[in-house]
Amino acid sequence: MLRLHATPTPDTDALLTRAMSPDPARIQAALHRYRTDPDWQIHTWEVAGQAVCAAGFTVQGSHGAVRHIGTHPDHTGQGHARALLHALMDALDLHTLTADTDEDAADFYRRSGFSVHEIPSPWDRRRYHCTLMRER
Prior knowledge:
alpha+beta
């Protein structure tokens, strides 16, 4: 079940941290932003009342951008992250949803219906821009 506008908690922090850079300073800066920037939202997917997946993103008009998405290790591969993203598209009436990611997550986005294109990367890792468009 989708929970909109979840207040950050230690559980959502742990879920989002799974998708963040391993740099502790960058993790803390991102978590701080979710608490202080009203444009940075957290939404969760719950199973039996427990948040098993969290997505952090921003919305501008009918466009959403995924900043981070993480699933509890006991619940990976069960479709919760995909369900969360598709439910957010519907609940927030988004026309497009995008994410920039690395090779580790590109296949997840492909399997979730996103088009995935490689983009230039400032790091030593390949980067991808992923787009999901709602047909109207």
